[in-house]
Amino acid sequence: MQEVIVIGGGVIGLTSAWWLLEAGYGVTLLEREADVGSGASYRNGGQLSYRYVSPLADQGVPLKALEWMIQGDGPLRFKPEADLRQWCWLAKFLANCNAADNRKTTSKLLELGELSRRAMGELELAVPLDQFAWRNAGKLVVYRSKKAFDAAVAKTSGAGEVLSAAECVAREPALSAALPVLAGGIFNEGEAVADCHAFCEVLAARLKEHPRFRGVMHGEARRIAVNNGRVTGLDTTAGMLWADNYVLAAGIQSRDLAATAEIALPLYPLKGYSLTVPIRATDVAPEISVTDFERKVLYARIGDSLRVAAMVDMVGEDASLDPKRVAALTRQVRETMPNAADYDRISPWAGLRPATPDSAPIIGATKYPNLWLNVGQGPLGFTFACGSAKLLAGAIKGDAPPFPLDGLTLR
Ligand SMILES: Cc1cc2nc3c(=O)[nH]c(=O)nc-3n(C[C@H](O)[C@H](O)[C@H](O)COP(=O)(O)OP(=O)(O)OC[C@H]3O[C@@H](n4cnc5c(N)ncnc54)[C@H](O)[C@@H]3O)c2cc1C
Question: Closest residue (by CA) to atom 20 of ligand 1?
């Protein structure tokens, strides 16, 4: 039997491990932290957004980005770094900011989204949905300006239900305070929300029960050793490790690890924030998952808490909490949904989205026949985890993919 080492115990590494076991491999998971799911997968927005995939790079985004940077509490912050990787990523991102590339990436991400939805359905047999607060919440994207609303309606081409501002509030009463500033919204059923960290924990428990799972090895991979065009081992803080195949699924840290094998991954850490706020019996929390389009703020009820996620900060590999950003987000949330939760008990968090310039993940082969990638899911890693893992396991096994993978491989 072929053995695989998966590097990284976030939602991508864990799902990769599961689908590799399903494909008949023996699997060891390497994770540097004491717990799985403690990186970007810890307190993300919880959206399983299979149809609203909207790549960040789009026509008009560069101008919009300048506007956002000027606003003190806007959704984007940029701190120039003395790191060429930031500038290369930015140049590639700008090159992708056009309608044609956006359409191409969107259609690929929709295929990946659909595969992910089906794969999550298969996984449900082993990981029951109620064990990670999964809910078929539907998604309502609301627009503040008529211009943005009209443009979105023109793009929907019949998919999604177009609602006036009053209809948005009737559908989701938690939005009632925002009624005067809303232009309208688009509702899609079939989108879900769930607790990504709980999903990681439950999946890790299932992995441990699997007869071919060799366990979670706690250690940090430091270098991918290569010789004669193959990976010959993994140098880790727990010693040297060997397997037939190696999967890199270490979130943003995949960038540095790949570099040790002379592979340049076009990844950049897009820092984001989330707030987790307890919901009291008297609160009017959103039942539907809401996206505030212009402010780029996501709202989801996850179990007994309101989860709010927002912001894209290009400030390097720094996941520390900036009190000013937390205060700005808290202000916006209180203003939009003042009665949704107990804002005196906010628990803030920040994480690094491992993002590619075109928002498409990188799945599958590298220049080494026994080194594989599952990286770059960026703002939608929870959404795409199951589909990406399925594609990865198929690629290693040599199965024909369910759709052409152009745009989802190392370019
Ligand atoms: C604020 C915010 C909101 C988000 N909201 C959503 C959302 O609503 N829906 C959605 O689909 N996605 C969302 N995302 C994106 C999603 O969280 C990420 O895409 C996803 O978590 C990435 O998973 P990962 O496994 O690649 O990375 P991680 O979760 O970071 O996992 C990588 C793991 O690898 C380990 N590791 C790193 N280096 C090494 C090493 N050298 N050796 C061993 N182990 C190592 C790390 O400790 C970590 O556990 C959001 C992200 C953020 C930051």
Answer: 381
